[in-house]
Amino acid sequence: MTAPATGRDAATARIAELAAGYDRSGAFPTESLGAAHEAGLLTATIGERYGGRGAGVEETARILHTLGQGDPSVALIAAMTLTTHGRQAVQPHWPEELYARVVKESLVRPVLVNHARVEPELGSPARGGLPATRARRTGDGWAISGTKRFVTGAEGLDWFLVWATTDEPEPRVGTFLVPGDSPGIEVTGRWDQLGLRASGSHDVTFRDVEVPYEQVIGLAPYGPAAEQDNRAGASLHLPLAALYLGVARAAQAFFHTFAQTRVPANLGHPVARTERFRRAAGEIEVLLAGAEQLVFGGAARVDAADSSYTPEQALGARVLADRHGVQAVGLAVRLLGNPGLARGNPLERHFRDIQCAPVHAPQEDISVLAIGTKALEAHAPHKKDQDQ
Fold first, then answer.
1. Which H helix or E strand runs over 136?
2. Where exactly are the structural domains of the chain?
Protein backbone atom coordinates (compact mmCIF):
# COMPACT_ATOMS: atom_id res chain seq x y z
CA MET A 1 0.00 0.00 0.00
CA THR A 2 2.96 2.27 0.47
CA ALA A 3 4.85 3.90 -2.41
CA PRO A 4 8.31 5.46 -2.45
CA ALA A 5 8.46 9.25 -2.33
CA THR A 6 9.43 9.32 -5.99
CA GLY A 7 6.26 7.40 -6.87
CA ARG A 8 4.17 9.82 -4.85
CA ASP A 9 5.84 12.81 -6.52
CA ALA A 10 5.26 11.34 -9.97
CA ALA A 11 1.60 10.67 -9.15
CA THR A 12 0.92 14.16 -7.84
CA ALA A 13 2.71 15.70 -10.85
CA ARG A 14 0.48 13.70 -13.17
CA ILE A 15 -2.61 14.71 -11.20
CA ALA A 16 -1.59 18.37 -11.58
CA GLU A 17 -1.17 17.91 -15.34
CA LEU A 18 -4.69 16.52 -15.66
CA ALA A 19 -6.38 19.07 -13.39
CA ALA A 20 -7.15 21.78 -15.95
CA GLY A 21 -8.79 19.31 -18.34
CA TYR A 22 -10.99 17.82 -15.64
CA ASP A 23 -11.91 21.31 -14.47
CA ARG A 24 -13.08 22.23 -17.97
CA SER A 25 -15.03 19.04 -18.60
CA GLY A 26 -16.34 18.39 -15.09
CA ALA A 27 -15.78 14.68 -15.77
CA PHE A 28 -15.09 12.26 -12.95
CA PRO A 29 -11.27 12.25 -12.47
CA THR A 30 -10.77 8.52 -12.99
CA GLU A 31 -7.17 8.70 -14.22
CA SER A 32 -6.10 11.03 -11.42
CA LEU A 33 -7.63 8.81 -8.75
CA GLY A 34 -5.92 5.83 -10.35
CA ALA A 35 -2.59 7.63 -10.01
CA ALA A 36 -3.36 8.43 -6.37
CA HIS A 37 -4.20 4.78 -5.73
CA GLU A 38 -1.00 3.52 -7.37
CA ALA A 39 1.00 5.83 -5.10
CA GLY A 40 -0.75 4.47 -2.01
CA LEU A 41 -2.46 7.77 -1.27
CA LEU A 42 -5.99 6.35 -0.99
CA THR A 43 -5.07 3.62 1.49
CA ALA A 44 -2.53 5.39 3.71
CA THR A 45 -4.88 5.58 6.70
CA ILE A 46 -5.94 1.93 6.77
CA GLY A 47 -5.11 0.75 10.29
CA GLU A 48 -2.18 -1.49 11.10
CA ARG A 49 -4.57 -4.08 12.54
CA TYR A 50 -5.96 -4.42 9.00
CA GLY A 51 -2.54 -4.61 7.35
CA GLY A 52 -2.30 -0.91 6.51
CA ARG A 53 0.20 1.78 7.33
CA GLY A 54 -2.05 3.55 9.81
CA ALA A 55 -1.18 7.10 8.77
CA GLY A 56 -2.27 9.61 11.39
CA VAL A 57 -3.94 12.99 11.15
CA GLU A 58 -0.74 14.89 10.37
CA GLU A 59 0.26 12.60 7.51
CA THR A 60 -3.29 12.71 6.18
CA ALA A 61 -3.15 16.49 6.25
CA ARG A 62 0.15 16.48 4.38
CA ILE A 63 -1.17 14.07 1.74
CA LEU A 64 -4.20 16.28 1.15
CA HIS A 65 -2.03 19.41 1.14
CA THR A 66 0.02 17.88 -1.68
CA LEU A 67 -3.04 16.64 -3.59
CA GLY A 68 -4.68 20.03 -3.09
CA GLN A 69 -1.79 21.67 -4.92
CA GLY A 70 -2.35 19.31 -7.84
CA ASP A 71 -6.14 19.01 -8.02
CA PRO A 72 -8.37 19.77 -5.03
CA SER A 73 -11.27 17.87 -6.61
CA VAL A 74 -9.20 14.70 -6.47
CA ALA A 75 -7.99 15.65 -3.00
CA LEU A 76 -11.55 16.07 -1.70
CA ILE A 77 -12.67 12.70 -3.07
CA ALA A 78 -9.57 11.14 -1.51
CA ALA A 79 -10.20 12.94 1.79
CA MET A 80 -13.55 11.25 2.26
CA THR A 81 -12.03 7.79 1.84
CA LEU A 82 -8.92 8.56 3.91
CA THR A 83 -10.89 9.91 6.87
CA THR A 84 -13.27 6.94 6.78
CA HIS A 85 -10.33 4.52 7.03
CA GLY A 86 -8.71 6.72 9.66
CA ARG A 87 -11.79 6.67 11.85
CA GLN A 88 -12.10 2.89 11.50
CA ALA A 89 -8.46 2.51 12.58
CA VAL A 90 -9.04 4.54 15.73
CA GLN A 91 -12.53 3.34 16.62
CA PRO A 92 -13.69 0.24 14.70
CA HIS A 93 -17.38 0.48 13.88
CA TRP A 94 -17.88 -1.28 10.52
CA PRO A 95 -18.90 -4.96 10.52
CA GLU A 96 -15.50 -6.66 10.61
CA GLU A 97 -16.07 -9.06 7.71
CA LEU A 98 -17.38 -6.29 5.48
CA TYR A 99 -14.51 -3.94 6.28
CA ALA A 100 -11.98 -6.72 5.65
CA ARG A 101 -13.48 -7.10 2.18
CA VAL A 102 -13.19 -3.36 1.55
CA VAL A 103 -9.52 -3.43 2.54
CA LYS A 104 -8.80 -6.45 0.33
CA GLU A 105 -10.38 -4.76 -2.70
CA SER A 106 -8.53 -1.53 -1.92
CA LEU A 107 -5.22 -3.32 -2.47
CA VAL A 108 -5.95 -3.86 -6.15
CA ARG A 109 -8.05 -0.85 -7.21
CA PRO A 110 -9.33 2.51 -5.96
CA VAL A 111 -12.20 1.84 -3.54
CA LEU A 112 -14.00 5.08 -2.74
CA VAL A 113 -16.20 5.72 0.28
CA ASN A 114 -18.17 8.78 1.36
CA HIS A 115 -20.98 9.86 3.63
CA ALA A 116 -24.32 10.96 2.20
CA ARG A 117 -25.81 13.29 4.83
CA VAL A 118 -26.95 16.65 3.40
CA GLU A 119 -30.56 16.82 2.22
CA PRO A 120 -32.58 19.29 0.10
CA GLU A 121 -34.96 20.26 2.92
CA LEU A 122 -32.73 19.76 5.94
CA GLY A 123 -29.53 21.21 4.55
CA SER A 124 -26.36 20.36 6.45
CA PRO A 125 -26.77 18.19 9.57
CA ALA A 126 -24.23 20.49 11.23
CA ARG A 127 -27.19 22.74 12.03
CA GLY A 128 -29.26 19.93 13.55
CA GLY A 129 -32.41 18.13 12.49
CA LEU A 130 -33.79 14.70 11.64
CA PRO A 131 -32.98 13.26 8.18
CA ALA A 132 -35.93 12.81 5.83
CA THR A 133 -34.26 9.80 4.19
CA ARG A 134 -36.10 6.72 5.44
CA ALA A 135 -34.96 3.20 6.21
CA ARG A 136 -37.93 0.85 5.93
CA ARG A 137 -37.65 -2.48 7.73
CA THR A 138 -38.01 -5.47 5.42
CA GLY A 139 -37.82 -9.22 5.90
CA ASP A 140 -34.12 -9.28 5.01
CA GLY A 141 -32.92 -5.89 6.22
CA TRP A 142 -33.67 -2.32 5.22
CA ALA A 143 -34.95 -0.45 2.16
CA ILE A 144 -33.47 3.05 1.89
CA SER A 145 -35.37 5.89 0.19
CA GLY A 146 -34.52 9.58 0.00
CA THR A 147 -32.37 12.20 -1.69
CA LYS A 148 -28.95 13.42 -0.58
CA ARG A 149 -27.12 16.50 -1.83
CA PHE A 150 -23.45 17.29 -2.47
CA VAL A 151 -22.26 13.68 -2.30
CA THR A 152 -18.64 14.14 -3.31
CA GLY A 153 -17.39 11.52 -5.76
CA ALA A 154 -20.93 10.18 -6.26
CA GLU A 155 -20.36 8.62 -9.69
CA GLY A 156 -17.35 6.64 -8.52
CA LEU A 157 -18.30 5.64 -4.98
CA ASP A 158 -18.11 2.01 -4.00
CA TRP A 159 -19.89 2.73 -0.72
CA PHE A 160 -22.43 5.36 0.25
CA LEU A 161 -22.68 5.89 4.02
CA VAL A 162 -26.29 7.04 4.11
CA TRP A 163 -27.63 8.86 7.17
CA ALA A 164 -31.28 7.91 7.57
CA THR A 165 -34.21 7.60 9.97
CA THR A 166 -35.98 4.28 10.49
CA ASP A 167 -39.74 3.99 9.95
CA GLU A 168 -40.19 2.26 13.30
CA PRO A 169 -42.86 3.45 15.80
CA GLU A 170 -39.99 4.92 17.81
CA PRO A 171 -37.63 6.14 15.05
CA ARG A 172 -33.91 5.56 15.23
CA VAL A 173 -31.14 7.27 13.28
CA GLY A 174 -28.07 5.60 11.86
CA THR A 175 -25.66 5.29 8.97
CA PHE A 176 -26.51 2.62 6.42
CA LEU A 177 -23.67 1.07 4.39
CA VAL A 178 -24.98 1.03 0.82
CA PRO A 179 -22.95 -0.57 -2.01
CA GLY A 180 -22.48 1.88 -4.87
CA ASP A 181 -23.69 -0.58 -7.50
CA SER A 182 -27.01 -1.30 -5.77
CA PRO A 183 -30.19 -1.10 -7.89
CA GLY A 184 -32.24 2.01 -7.13
CA ILE A 185 -29.39 4.54 -6.88
CA GLU A 186 -29.58 7.45 -9.31
CA VAL A 187 -27.71 10.73 -9.75
CA THR A 188 -30.61 13.18 -9.91
CA GLY A 189 -28.84 16.54 -9.73
CA ARG A 190 -25.60 17.43 -11.45
CA TRP A 191 -22.80 19.29 -9.65
CA ASP A 192 -22.28 22.55 -11.56
CA GLN A 193 -20.49 24.88 -9.18
CA LEU A 194 -17.90 27.63 -9.40
CA GLY A 195 -15.07 25.54 -7.96
CA LEU A 196 -14.01 21.90 -7.52
CA ARG A 197 -15.82 21.16 -10.75
CA ALA A 198 -14.42 17.63 -11.06
CA SER A 199 -15.37 16.56 -7.52
CA GLY A 200 -18.62 15.00 -8.75
CA SER A 201 -20.54 16.26 -5.72
CA HIS A 202 -23.90 15.38 -7.23
CA ASP A 203 -27.36 14.93 -5.75
CA VAL A 204 -28.19 11.24 -5.34
CA THR A 205 -31.61 9.66 -4.94
CA PHE A 206 -32.11 6.27 -3.29
CA ARG A 207 -35.32 4.43 -4.20
CA ASP A 208 -35.98 1.37 -2.02
CA VAL A 209 -32.31 0.44 -2.09
CA GLU A 210 -31.94 -2.83 -0.22
CA VAL A 211 -29.34 -3.12 2.53
CA PRO A 212 -28.72 -6.21 4.72
CA TYR A 213 -29.75 -5.87 8.34
CA GLU A 214 -26.19 -5.90 9.66
CA GLN A 215 -24.93 -3.13 7.34
CA VAL A 216 -25.83 -0.24 9.62
CA ILE A 217 -23.70 1.56 12.19
CA GLY A 218 -24.55 3.83 15.09
CA LEU A 219 -28.27 3.06 15.05
CA ALA A 220 -29.81 4.81 18.06
CA PRO A 221 -32.92 6.78 19.10
CA TYR A 222 -32.87 10.32 17.78
CA GLY A 223 -31.63 12.83 20.33
CA PRO A 224 -28.52 14.75 21.33
CA ALA A 225 -26.37 11.63 20.80
CA ALA A 226 -27.54 11.40 17.19
CA GLU A 227 -26.83 15.06 16.42
CA GLN A 228 -23.60 15.98 14.64
CA ASP A 229 -20.99 17.13 17.14
CA ASN A 230 -19.45 20.17 15.47
CA ARG A 231 -16.74 20.37 18.13
CA ALA A 232 -15.49 16.87 17.31
CA GLY A 233 -13.75 15.77 14.17
CA ALA A 234 -10.26 17.30 14.33
CA SER A 235 -9.21 14.34 12.17
CA LEU A 236 -11.38 15.81 9.38
CA HIS A 237 -11.24 19.57 10.07
CA LEU A 238 -7.45 19.82 10.00
CA PRO A 239 -6.84 17.72 6.85
CA LEU A 240 -9.57 19.66 5.01
CA ALA A 241 -7.91 22.91 6.01
CA ALA A 242 -4.60 21.53 4.72
CA LEU A 243 -6.22 20.59 1.40
CA TYR A 244 -7.24 24.19 0.70
CA LEU A 245 -3.90 25.54 1.90
CA GLY A 246 -2.50 23.33 -0.86
CA VAL A 247 -4.68 25.22 -3.35
CA ALA A 248 -3.32 28.49 -1.99
CA ARG A 249 0.27 27.24 -2.32
CA ALA A 250 -0.39 26.36 -5.97
CA ALA A 251 -1.72 29.88 -6.51
CA GLN A 252 1.35 31.29 -4.78
CA ALA A 253 3.64 29.26 -7.08
CA PHE A 254 1.98 30.75 -10.16
CA PHE A 255 2.16 34.23 -8.64
CA HIS A 256 5.92 33.80 -8.12
CA THR A 257 6.41 32.54 -11.68
CA PHE A 258 4.47 35.46 -13.09
CA ALA A 259 6.40 37.97 -10.99
CA GLN A 260 9.76 36.55 -12.09
CA THR A 261 8.92 36.38 -15.80
CA ARG A 262 6.73 39.45 -16.35
CA VAL A 263 8.94 42.28 -17.69
CA PRO A 264 6.89 45.38 -18.66
CA ALA A 265 8.50 47.43 -21.43
CA ASN A 266 8.34 50.59 -19.33
CA LEU A 267 10.05 48.87 -16.41
CA GLY A 268 12.84 46.91 -18.03
CA HIS A 269 13.06 44.23 -15.33
CA PRO A 270 10.76 41.60 -13.74
CA VAL A 271 7.96 42.94 -11.58
CA ALA A 272 9.32 40.66 -8.82
CA ARG A 273 11.88 43.40 -8.14
CA THR A 274 9.26 46.03 -7.40
CA GLU A 275 8.37 46.88 -3.83
CA ARG A 276 4.70 46.27 -4.54
CA PHE A 277 5.22 42.65 -5.58
CA ARG A 278 7.80 41.92 -2.89
CA ARG A 279 5.44 43.26 -0.24
CA ALA A 280 2.56 41.16 -1.59
CA ALA A 281 4.79 38.08 -1.75
CA GLY A 282 5.67 38.60 1.88
CA GLU A 283 2.05 39.03 2.90
CA ILE A 284 1.03 35.84 1.09
CA GLU A 285 3.85 33.86 2.69
CA VAL A 286 2.98 35.12 6.18
CA LEU A 287 -0.67 34.16 5.70
CA LEU A 288 0.07 30.65 4.45
CA ALA A 289 3.02 29.79 6.67
CA GLY A 290 1.12 30.85 9.78
CA ALA A 291 -1.94 28.83 8.81
CA GLU A 292 0.17 25.75 8.04
CA GLN A 293 1.83 25.96 11.45
CA LEU A 294 -1.59 25.93 13.10
CA VAL A 295 -2.92 23.08 10.98
CA PHE A 296 0.08 20.74 10.93
CA GLY A 297 1.02 21.56 14.51
CA GLY A 298 -2.53 20.83 15.65
CA ALA A 299 -2.60 17.59 13.67
CA ALA A 300 0.64 16.46 15.33
CA ARG A 301 -0.90 17.16 18.73
CA VAL A 302 -3.97 15.09 17.84
CA ASP A 303 -1.72 12.19 16.82
CA ALA A 304 0.17 12.54 20.10
CA ALA A 305 -3.13 12.38 22.02
CA ASP A 306 -2.32 15.73 23.61
CA SER A 307 -5.20 16.21 26.05
CA SER A 308 -4.57 19.97 26.18
CA TYR A 309 -5.44 20.31 22.50
CA THR A 310 -9.16 21.00 22.40
CA PRO A 311 -11.78 20.52 19.68
CA GLU A 312 -12.22 24.31 19.69
CA GLN A 313 -8.55 24.77 18.82
CA ALA A 314 -8.96 22.47 15.82
CA LEU A 315 -12.06 24.36 14.71
CA GLY A 316 -10.24 27.66 15.15
CA ALA A 317 -7.27 26.43 13.12
CA ARG A 318 -9.59 25.55 10.27
CA VAL A 319 -11.42 28.89 10.41
CA LEU A 320 -8.14 30.81 10.26
CA ALA A 321 -6.66 28.55 7.59
CA ASP A 322 -9.71 29.04 5.36
CA ARG A 323 -9.61 32.79 5.88
CA HIS A 324 -5.90 32.99 5.18
CA GLY A 325 -6.09 30.80 2.08
CA VAL A 326 -8.92 32.82 0.54
CA GLN A 327 -7.16 36.08 1.41
CA ALA A 328 -3.81 34.97 0.00
CA VAL A 329 -5.22 33.84 -3.35
CA GLY A 330 -7.36 36.96 -3.61
CA LEU A 331 -4.29 39.11 -3.05
CA ALA A 332 -2.40 37.32 -5.85
CA VAL A 333 -5.31 37.77 -8.25
CA ARG A 334 -5.63 41.47 -7.47
CA LEU A 335 -1.96 42.09 -8.15
CA LEU A 336 -2.02 40.33 -11.51
CA GLY A 337 -5.21 42.07 -12.63
CA ASN A 338 -6.69 40.75 -15.88
CA PRO A 339 -4.07 37.99 -16.31
CA GLY A 340 -5.09 36.64 -12.90
CA LEU A 341 -8.67 36.14 -14.08
CA ALA A 342 -7.82 34.75 -17.52
CA ARG A 343 -9.15 31.24 -18.08
CA GLY A 344 -5.82 30.23 -19.62
CA ASN A 345 -3.96 30.80 -16.34
CA PRO A 346 -4.13 28.30 -13.46
CA LEU A 347 -4.54 31.17 -10.98
CA GLU A 348 -8.12 31.69 -12.18
CA ARG A 349 -8.89 28.03 -11.38
CA HIS A 350 -7.18 28.25 -7.99
CA PHE A 351 -9.21 31.38 -7.21
CA ARG A 352 -12.45 29.51 -7.96
CA ASP A 353 -11.42 26.40 -6.05
CA ILE A 354 -10.38 28.27 -2.88
CA GLN A 355 -13.87 29.75 -2.59
CA CYS A 356 -15.08 26.27 -1.62
CA ALA A 357 -12.96 26.20 1.54
CA PRO A 358 -15.41 27.98 3.89
CA VAL A 359 -18.41 26.04 2.56
CA HIS A 360 -17.64 22.75 4.31
CA ALA A 361 -19.60 21.98 7.44
CA PRO A 362 -19.40 23.18 10.08
CA GLN A 363 -19.32 26.58 8.43
CA GLU A 364 -17.60 29.53 10.02
CA ASP A 365 -20.59 30.89 11.94
CA ILE A 366 -21.26 27.50 13.56
CA SER A 367 -17.56 27.01 14.33
CA VAL A 368 -17.15 30.45 15.88
CA LEU A 369 -20.33 29.95 17.92
CA ALA A 370 -18.96 26.69 19.36
CA ILE A 371 -15.60 28.33 20.09
CA GLY A 372 -17.19 31.35 21.71
CA THR A 373 -19.59 29.28 23.81
CA LYS A 374 -16.72 27.23 25.19
CA ALA A 375 -14.62 30.34 25.85
CA LEU A 376 -17.42 31.99 27.82
CA GLU A 377 -18.07 28.80 29.78
CA ALA A 378 -14.41 28.64 30.74
CA HIS A 379 -14.58 32.13 32.24
CA ALA A 380 -18.02 31.86 33.82
CA PRO A 381 -18.11 32.37 37.61
CA HIS A 382 -18.33 29.18 39.63
CA LYS A 383 -21.64 28.47 41.34
CA LYS A 384 -19.97 28.91 44.72
CA ASP A 385 -18.81 32.38 43.70
CA GLN A 386 -22.31 33.24 42.49
CA ASP A 387 -23.81 32.10 45.82
CA GLN A 388 -21.43 34.36 47.69
1. strand 134-137
2. 5-110, 115-223, 234-378
